[in-house]
Every structure is written in C-alpha cells, then in structure tokens.
UniProtKB/TrEMBL annotation:
Mn(2+) 1 binds at H9, D13, D75. One of its GO terms (molecular function) is inorganic diphosphate phosphatase activity. The lineage of its organism: Bacteria, Bacillati, Bacillota, Bacilli, Lactobacillales. This is Probable manganese-dependent inorganic pyrophosphatase. Residues 181-309 form the DHHA2 domain. Belongs to the PPase class C family. Keywords: Cytoplasm, Hydrolase, Manganese, Metal-binding.
C-alpha cells in the first residue's frame, strides 16, 4: 500500500498538529499507511502539549507531490491554507470543522465535516464508532487540541460533543483538564521574546472573500494592555506583509484568554476598512477597535467578514 501524508493547515496550531497525529494513528489501525507531518513548526502551546504527552514534533514539509501521490487533510480544506502543491496530489480523506470553500476533487473521497469546536472532537467520535481504544498519550494530545481550539471550553464554538470529548479524553489521559488546560494555554501566551513579524504569522490564515485576499491572524495573551503597547510595530509588520503577499486586508485579533475579550488591528484600503466596520458594527479608531467577547476566528470573525464583503 502506497504511503500517504496526513497534515493540517499552514501556521499549524495544536489542533492541526495534534489531530494529524491522532487521525494518522486511527487510519493506520484501519489498514492505511500514513505519516503525520506538519506545514510549519509547532508554536509554544503545541510544543508544550507534545512534550507533556511524550510526542516528537512531526517533520515539516514544504511540498507533498515529491513524496506521495495522495494526502489526507485535517483541520482545513481551503487550498490557500494547505500545502503549496495541493493541486498536484490526490486528496483521499478530509476531516474538518471549518467552512468548505474552493475545494474540489477529481475523484470521490471520504469527507467528514461537523460544526464542532475542534477537529479532534470528530476524530474522538470516530474512535468511538470503531470501538477503537485511544492510547493514554494520544488522548492527552487530542484533549490538548480541543482545549486549544475552544479556549478551555469557553469559546462560542464549543458544543456538547466537545465537552463530552474533553471529559472522556481527560479521564483516559489521567489529567485534570482545567488545571492542565490553563497551564497549556498560558504556555502559548509568551510573546515578549518574539518579533512582530513572527507573531502576526504564528496563527494566521488567508481567506478569499468575494475576490479579496483577506488575512486574519490571532494572538493569545494574558495581558492585553501590554500587548497593545506594540501596536505601531504590529501595524508596520502587517503593512509590510500585505505588500509582500498581496493581502487586500490584514486583521490581527489579540485575545485575552482569561476574560475572552479581544482587540483588533486592521490595515488595508479605506474601502476595505469600511467593510470591516460594516462587518462588526464598530468604528475603527486609528486602525484599532475593541471586540469584547470575540475569541473565535472561525465563528465570530470570518462569517461577518464574508457577509460584509459579499453584501
């Protein structure tokens, strides 16, 4: 059986890496021959989770077609978020919890998408459906992914399935998910030793919205005022990245994980800034706006932006 690669999106987070590892294990148990890989180095939070449960970081690939003919995608489906040569390989399986956009294949495939808080929640369901045992360390990694994507079950994306998965996986892993989860989330909030260029690319995704190339990045912190002291440097880095990569609008969401409030910085044309204001019903002041209660790019940022750009 020919080998396939399993991977999440570019600028991978804990869900993208953790679920790639979990799904690869799952399908291999069913007879597939796969290797989990990543489209970038793990961030601090993901590295913390990998170390906690004894995993090596998956190797990073730039292209896939030079290694395999077929791949499996987790935690994404949009081509611009995937490996650079995604058009040169066959996609055999997708497990995702995002919108489906610009995705098409020449052949039938297995595609599973559910509106839950994390892709690992879906994979947890799949283990249950197959009555397949989840190893202790893998349960810990899947738990980490759900905690990350749902901000310890506080995100509006959280569903009853996510809550059930967290309870189940925490029991298998033998951890107090609240205590461990807070420690893991805090591990990902150290921004002092990173440059603005690094920070705006750590957790960033591109979206095609009515012909516009929109970049949305997110940073989690525990001290929002301290992070905002770097506002001008962030804006400069965002302007530079936009010119270099052709982004029509760049939004940076800076989220306080302790109180679930965010502030956004936005660069782009006056027209696109007006579209942003239309999306959120708020006026930008010097490229900045407070977005209390907004923590989810998937549910609270991309949908209103999509509606505003298409309206």
């Amino acid at each position: 059986m020919e080998k396939e690669l399993v991977f999440g999106h570019q600028n991978p987070d804990t869900d993208a890496i953790g679920t790639a590892i979990a799904f690869s294990y799952f399908v291999n148990k069913l007879g597939c021959n796969t290797e989990p890989v990543a489209l970038g180095e793990p961030n601090d939070e993901t590295a913390y989770a990998l170390a906690k449960f004894g995993f090596e970081a998956p190797r990073v690939i730039k292209t896939a077609s030079d290694e395999v003919k077929s791949v499996m995608l987790v935690d994404h489906n949009e081509p611009q978020q995937s490996v650079s040569d995604i058009d040169k390989v066959k996609v055999s399986r997708v497990v995702d919890h995002h919108r489906i956009m610009n995705f098409n294949t020449a052949d039938p495939l297995y595609y599973r998408a559910e509106p839950v808080g994390c892709t690992s929640t879906i994979v947890w369901e799949m283990f249950d459906e197959q009555e397949m045992e989840i190893p202790e360390n893998l349960a810990g990694l899947m738990l980490s992914a759900i905690i990350s994507d749902t901000l310890l079950l506080k995100s509006p994306t959280t569903t009853d399935k996510d809550r059930a998965a967290v309870e189940s996986l925490a029991k298998i892993a033998g951890v107090d998910y609240k205590e461990y989860g807070l420690a893991m989330l805090k591990a990902g909030t150290n921004i002092a030793d990173k440059s603005e260029d690094e920070l705006i690319d750590l957790d960033a995704k591109s979206f095609e919205l009515n012909g516009n190339n929109v970049r949305v990045a997110q940073i989690n912190v525990v001290d929002l005022p301290e992070a905002m002291e770097r506002k001008e440097a962030f804006l400069k880095a965002m302007e530079s990245a936009s010119k270099e990569n052709g982004y029509d609008m760049f939004m940076l969401l800076i989220t306080n994980i302790l109180d679930s409030d965010s502030e956004a910085l936005v660069v782009g044309s006056d027209e696109n800034k007006a579209t942003f204001e239309k999306a959120f019903g708020k006026k930008l002041s010097d490229s900045e706006v407070k977005l209390p209660g907004v923590v989810s790019r998937k549910k609270q940022v991309v949908p209103p932006l999509t509606n505003a750009f298409e309206g």
